Amino acid sequence: MLRLIDIARLADVSPSTVSLALNNKAGVSEEVRKRIIDISLEMGYKKGPPPPAGENITIKMLKIAKHGHVVNEQHNAFITEYLEGIETGAKKRKYKLEVSFFNRIPVENIAEALRDSAVDGFIILGSEFNAFDLNYFTNISKPLVFIDTWFPLALVDCIDIDNDDAVFKSIQYLYECGHRSIGLIKSSYDTRNFRMREIGFGESMEYFSLPVQNNFIVSVDPMMDRSFADLNNFFDKTDKIPTAFFCMSDIMAYSCMRALRNHNIRVPEDVSVIGFDDLPSSSVTDPPLTTVRVSTRQIGERALERLSDKINGLTHANPEKILISGKLMIRDSVRKI
What we know:
The longest helix is centred in the N-terminal third of the chain and has 18 residues, at 76-93. The chain is elongated, with a radius of gyration of 24 Å. A 6-stranded parallel beta sheet has the order 2-1-3-4-5-11, with helices on one face. The chain has helices at 4-11, 15-22, 30-42, 76-93, 107-114, 163-176, 192-207, 224-237, 250-262, 296-311, and strands spanning 58-65, 96-103, 121-125, 144-147, 158-161, 182-187, 217-220, 244-247, 272-277, 290-293, 321-324, 327-329. The protein has 10 helices and 12 strands. By secondary structure, it is α/β, with parallel strands linked by helices. Helix 1 packs across helix 2. Helix 7 (192-207) links the parallel strand 6 and strand 7 (217-220). The chain has 3 domains: 4-42, no CATH class; 54-160 and 296-323, 3-Layer(aba) Sandwich (Rossmann fold); 163-294, 3-Layer(aba) Sandwich (Rossmann fold), CATH 3.40.50.2300.
């Protein structure tokens, strides 16, 4: 299939310039317009109907909870920020935006339902997906972009936080504050983001020549009450703790601080805690939580931009893997030793 980007490459112009020329719109010189038309005719281009105007394009965001241990009401504010970024981009282009929530429905059934959908493209929240789940979407002819996950070997577009960078910033800050014994609170449910954070933790500890102590690695359910129960049980059974914990999510960090308090261990005087996500309540916990702020709105806007380019044929066919840095929000849950 002939694409605008192929013509643009030969004409040495942008795909948007090709679109303007082929649709006889202003903004292109006659010389450039003639060159584009000549090249397109040589390549066998036959003018068809113009691409749909923005108000005729409908996109859909899919919020999918495979098991609900990550995508749940505790993260609604976080997910809403993704949606706000997508909405911002949709309004700029006059696209219609629909949102659907699938709770504990088999992924293969969801993908099957999408094949008959009348929308022009999908942005899919893949927080709880594994790499195999993406196979169910390979036969969908509509453009797709996945957010909040990242699979380097899959032939899909993914936009996510740069977990390696975020974890490094966290461990670097603890190191600069004098901490040399750092524990990890990790998820017992496997997601790509959690896995990347665990890998990033190990690599960051190695960078600063710090030992990873297995007795200070605690695996917990990522949901609030269950992570508290897991951590409370851990502190019941141990008499040794590190000077700091890096937690894979704010929910785990809240549970960690609650369990420490339950054992008369003070934060940050006795143990420092860093979270991940910067949920709204993180700034008002006692003490306010040092955590990683995910660029959720930026990720949402970038996903909409990428999807729009795919819908309008203004991009390469090869998938893009985009990682966007987060920001360490320094508050009072970490002390300097």
